[in-house]
Amino acid sequence: MRAVIAEDSVLLRIGLVKVLETAGFEVRAEAADAEGLLTAVEEHRPDIAVVDVRMPPGFTDEGVRAALLIRQQWPDTAVLLLSQYVEERYAADLLTAHTSGIGYLLKQRVADVEEFIDALRRVAGGGTALDPQVVSQLLVRRHSDPLDRLTRRERDVLELMAGGRSNAGIAAALVVSESAVAKHINSIFVKLDLPVADADHRRVLAVLRFLGVS
């Protein structure tokens, strides 16, 4: 898979290149700012862009704004954002606008190479990867709603779904069968009033409601 990296810290950028190449990604370009990132994505059309949230010149939300633009103009390019701190507003903006090919992790997760590579592959494949701390802070913002109908186990299943886990991944984490996970998920859909509809992805809608961004 092809990748581009946007990170103004030279040391971290070098580290990211090595991790991605170790995972079998072909790093087509590196950028130190949002403008360079957009130029690289337009030229190389990568499968995934790994982007720092705060980049020159303002060191505020340049990476997030670039990510939103990438997902709009080049929807085949997934985006994995890296942040020094949890900034739930940025994560909520991304999840509200896009429901696939999006990741938001804290930079400290890069140190766990295996976990980071798993997140990279999941996002590049069209899934989502949210840092557990991001999920926790988004949940603080949630108001009382149909989620209160869920059992403790259903909440556990939905939280793992929010982290991008497949049914098999959820089953392994909770030490239950995949059929049990499927039953919990169907119950979640019913309790969250998410009927079957061709135009909607109920799994994504359930996660968005869980995170309080829909």
UniProtKB/TrEMBL annotation:
Example GO molecular function: DNA binding
PROSITE patterns attached to this UniProt entry: HTH_LUXR_2, RESPONSE_REGULATORY
SUPFAM superfamilies named among the record's database cross-references: C-terminal effector domain of the bipartite response regulators, CheY-like
Pfam family, one: GerE
Gene Ontology BP annotations: phosphorelay signal transduction system; regulation of DNA-templated transcription
Highest taxon in the source lineage: Bacteria
Residues of the Response regulatory domain: 2-122
Xref: InterPro entries: CheY-like_superfamily, NreC/VraR/RcsB-like_REC, Sig_transdc_resp-reg_C-effctor, Sig_transdc_resp-reg_receiver, Tscrpt_reg_LuxR_C, WalR-like
Domain HTH luxR-type: 143-214
Keyword annotations from UniProtKB, A to Z: DNA-binding, Phosphoprotein, Transcription, Transcription regulation
Residues passing through the membrane, by range: none
UniProt keyword annotation of DNA-binding present: yes
Location of 4-aspartylphosphate modifications: 52
UniProt KW Transcription regulation keyword: yes
SMART domains linked to this entry: HTH_LUXR, REC
Protein name: DNA-binding response regulator
Classification of source organism: Bacteria, Bacillati, Actinomycetota, Actinomycetes, Kitasatosporales
